[in-house]
Amino acid sequence: MEVTGFFTAIIIGLIIGALGRLVVPGKQSIPIWLTLLIGVVAAILGTLFAGVLGVDETAGVDWIELFIQVVFAAIGVSIVAGAYGRRR
């Protein structure tokens, strides 16, 4: 992953976190900053995973990579919301 890809993943990650939260059904009682952090991590992991699959460099918008990132974010939000909810 190049430096520009890393910073792009962080910026996109902020949006990905919100999308991941919207995909997960029910109420998630986690703070918005945690959702955004999950989104950034999901964007980075999704970009790396897309690279492993060989779909990180496509012509135009990388829809497959974006989908992978949202899936990672939804999984992350689900896990953290479950753990965070039990902690409170």
TrEMBL record:
Reading the lineage from the top rank, the first entry is Bacteria
In the bilayer, the protein is annotated as: Multi-pass membrane protein
Entry's Gene Ontology cellular component terms: plasma membrane
Where does this one sit in the cell? Cell membrane
What keywords is this UniProt entry annotated with?
Cell membrane, Membrane, Transmembrane, Transmembrane helix
Q: List membrane-spanning regions.
A: 6-24, 31-54, 66-85
Q: What is stated as this protein's family in its record?
A: Belongs to the UPF0410 family.
Name of the protein described by the UniProt record: Transglycosylase
Q: Which organism is it from?
A: Micromonospora haikouensis
